[in-house]
Structures are given as C-alpha cells and as structure tokens.
From TrEMBL, chains A, B:
NCBIfam families: cyt_tran_rel (TIGR00125), panC (TIGR00018). Beta-alanine binds at residue 59. The gene is panC. Pathway: Cofactor biosynthesis; (R)-pantothenate biosynthesis; (R)-pantothenate from (R)-pantoate and beta-alanine: step 1/1. ATP binds at residues 28-35, 145-148, 182-185. This is Pantothenate synthetase. The reaction proceeds by a bi uni uni bi ping pong mechanism. It catalyses: (R)-pantoate + beta-alanine + ATP = (R)-pantothenate + AMP + diphosphate + H(+). It comes from the Bacteria. (R)-pantoate binds at residues 59, 151. The keyword tRNA-binding does not apply.
C-alpha cells in the first residue's frame, strides 16, 4: 500500500478512525536506520503504523540548531514507504501550535540533570509535544529509541503519571560499523570529527569494562573518562553511571546500570549510552 | 440498570472497553442538584455516563479543607442511580497517585488570577487530575458546571492546547430559590451565614444592572461592590468584570462579559458568577 502523507490533524483523525490498531513512531525527520528499525518494530505491534515528522520548536533552546536542523521530507517518505509505514503525519508549526502553547507538561525532577542540565526547558518541550501527538494519534503502542535514553525514561514517566493507555516500546540504538550511534546530527560532522566521534562509544565500553572488572568508584571513573575525552579535544557535558531504574546516580547496591554521555565535537553535540547489568557483587 | 461502583482503574477500563460512547462528569462527591443536572445533560450525549468521585489532594492548599471536605458516598450513589448514571468511579488516593506525582500540567497564566491568586497551585492540581481522569475514562464528552467558571475556562484550554479528542459541555449553575448557587461548601454555613450568602448573587446581579445601565468604569463598580460586601462582614477575595472569551479584565470594546466573585462568610469561601452580553454601545 502507498504511504499516506497527511499534514493536518482533522484528516489524520478521520483516517485513523477505522484503524483496528495503531503503532506510533514520533520523529523529527532526517530519518536514518535507527528510525527505520523503530518502524519495523512498530509493524510487529499494530496493523497501522503512523510516523510523525515534526521539528518541534518547543524543545530547542534559543542558541540551538532549530533553524539548521536537517529537513529532508522527500527522502524520508521514500524510506518510510520502503519500510512499510502506513501514514506519515507532517504538521506545520501552526497546525501543532495554532495559539501560543501557554500550557506545558512539567517533567519529573530528573529532567534537570544529564541532558536537561545543558538544555534547560528541553524536556518540557519534549513531554508537551509528545503528549499532544499521543492525543492526536491515540496509538496503543509508541516506539522510542534507546539512544535518547533520558527522553525514553521521561516518556515512560509521562505515560505512567498521566495514565496514558499506551505501551512504550524501546528500540536498540543502531550504529555504524565503527560503533558510532546513528543520529541526524552526525551530518553536521566533518570527516575528521566523524572519525573522532567513534571514540565516544569506545569510551563508554571502556567504562563498562572497568565496572565489570570490579572498579566501583563511579565518580572517579566518570572524572577520568571525562578528562580523557577533554584532552582529545572534546567538550564534555557529562559522563555518568546511573541506575537504569531511576536514572539517579548509581549506588553500590544497584546492579541494573546505564552509563550515559553527552559531548561535543566542535558545535555538534553527540549523545550515547550503554545499558548493562553489573556482573560482580558489591564489595 | 443498576449503578456500577468501580474503585480501580483496571476494572473501569475493562468495563468501558465495550461502551459505544462515554460521557464523563468528574466530581469531588457530596453531590447536589448542580451535579445531577450535569449527569442528566450527560445522558443526552452518550450511552454510558461515568461519574467520578475523587477528593483530589493535589488541588487543596496546605491550609484548606481537604480533611473536612464532605464525603457522602452512600447518598451520592443513591442520587446517581436515580439520575441514571451508569458507572461511578471512586478511586482511592493511592489508586490515582501510586507514586509521587512529580509531573504536572502547567495551567495557562490566567490560573494565577481570580481564584488562583488566593489558591496558589490549585489549578495545577485541577488540570493534572482532570488530564489523568480523561486518560483513564477516555470519554467523547465531559461536563463541567459554570459555577466554577475559571476552572471551566482552564479545562477548555487543556483540551485545546493538548489536542484532547473530547467535547466539553458546560452546565448552568443551579441555585436555591433564594438565588444562592448550590455548592458542597454551603453545608459549612450557619443559618445566619446562609441567609447572608444570598447577597453574593444579588450583588452580582446589581453589577450586571449597573453595566447594562451604561456604567462602564468597571474598576469603580468592582471597588464599590467589594466595599459594600466588606461593610456587611464579608471577606472579599475578588469581584471582577472580565471578558468571557479570554477571562482577562474586560475592556471597553468587549461585549461578552462575565462578572465573577469569591468572598468568605467566616471560614467558608463562596464563589459565583454571571455571564452576560453588554446591551449598549461603548461610549
């Protein structure tokens, strides 16, 4: 079946009225294999797969890349058609925000840490637009990538705390052969920066190895890793070992862990993370 | 049909899965003819009428009447059965808030004026619980009374700004023969206070008459009315002539108006309002 491209809410709602089940993949477009992986996962969960493409002004800070964020609708639609998506919802800013959005979703306190510390208001904007999109699409299932780990955590909280009747399914981070996590922002990198960018995932793997070998001074490991990247020209926002259940700094008793990092190559901010289960007993 | 009393979300969702259409009346219980009027309106709009009874801690301030708020479940259920409601949803605080509600809905700026000025955080709590209840019940139609005019305004904004697929229907304020607006809080009044309480609606009617006679210095009218009630022993929170469309202070060009008041008899806070169309041209 052909992909339906629908830019307005009324048409989308009318089209979805007869859908027996809906899986939803919200995106900002410039789709890569990470998004397509989510679309394919979505097809396993519902008969109608809806993908939204909307570069949401609310989640960009004043000095961020809203204007330059890559917009590639034609290529995106080709990829979605090939992946078997049924509908792509492509609202304008006016369609999503016909009046000033004075009401927001206040995210949980964890939104002020990690990426939220460097991007104040970012997760307010994410939670607000995702709630709006959920109410427009009314899916039974929604899919998010694990690369945006903190975002995934906050969306799960949104669903839990606001009693949304939606199952959230997480897709594994898709990577280049080099290990570099796929991201629309990788397109900003020069070839030299892109080569160096591989080091972010390697550093996270080194941290996991260190923890698994029995090192448990997480603060020291974080500081050393951060210093290592800084010496190589990175600007490090954070490297942090956290509890996967709470996203709070990991304690000695936590075994389900995630190590997360955000660091810049030039003006390009990259993020990545690895979930892991600590394989030794606490000392 | 008998009224179903359902205290938990899972049972309610299962029961509503087969409902062809749902109208929803959220309440805090202690039902009076104002609530019953909404239930009867609801029956005109859907085949299944759900009423919730939940005294929501989130919308009470620290020094307010959460503990003493009247809880009269048995009588409420009798009234709902007689009025033809199908389901009453009676969740516990733990059912609605199984974990700390760290995420909130930020209401629009108007939430800081009128009742919001005297009750900081009140409309955050209202908007948050109403959004949760909407997501639990998933009605096509929801009904609110005009007595809580600012609340009704904020709920309409909630639906608009978060793209909720719900029609909001307003029920007219129900009154005693004396004109006193029905309210669960009227039960707090002594008989002398209740007699005096009638004056609130009479005062609002006097204000409407004054405006219709051509007086257009709204600030002066508000001040005079407030002084009048204060001299008679009331503690006046506000008396305000506003645009019905925006709830902002009415300007000379506004013709669709509402006059709202909140004032206390002893410890009991009463609110009331009158919508009206200004019947003379601006001078």
């Amino acid at each position: 079946m052909a992909l339906d491209i629908i830019p307005d809410i009324a048409t989308l709602r009318a089209r979805l009225k007869t859908a027996p089940s809906i899986a939803f993949v919200p995106t900002m477009g410039n789709l890569h294999a990470g998004h397509i992986h989510l679309v394919k996962l979505a097809k396993q969960h519902a008969q109608c797969v809806v993908v939204s493409i909307f570069v949401n002004p609310l989640q960009f800070g004043a000095n961020e890349d809203l204007a330059s964020y890559p917009r590639t609708l034609a290529e995106d639609c080709e990829k979605l058609q090939a992946a078997g998506a049924d509908i792509v919802f492509t609202p304008s800013v006016t369609e999503m925000y016909p009046t000033v959005q004075t009401m927001r979703v206040t995210p949980p306190p964890i939104a002020n840490e990690l990426c939220g510390a460097a991007r104040p208001g970012h997760f307010d904007g994410v939670a607000t637009v995702v709630l709006k999109l959920f109410n427009i699409v009314q899916p039974q299932v929604a899919l998010f990538g694990k690369k945006d780990y903190q975002q995934l955590f906050i969306i799960r909280e949104l669903v839990h705390q606001f009693n949304l009747p939606i199952d959230i399914i997480a897709g594994d981070t898709q990577r280049e052969d080099s290990g570099l996590a796929l991201s629309s922002r990788n397109g900003y990198l020069s070839s030299a920066q892109k080569l160096e960018a591989q080091r972010l995932y390697r550093t996270l793997n080194m941290i996991v190895d260190n923890v698994q070998k029995g090192h448990h001074d997480y603060v020291a490991i974080e500081a050393q890793s951060s210093q290592y990247l800084t010496q190589l020209g990175w600007i490090v926002d954070y490297i942090s070992i956290r509890s996967a259940a709470t996203l709070l700094p990991a304690s000695a008793t936590d075994t389900e862990l995630v190590v997360l990092a955000a660091a810049r190559q030039g003006n390009t901010r990259l993020i990545d993370n690895i979930e892991f289960t600590r394989s030794f007993a606490s000392t």
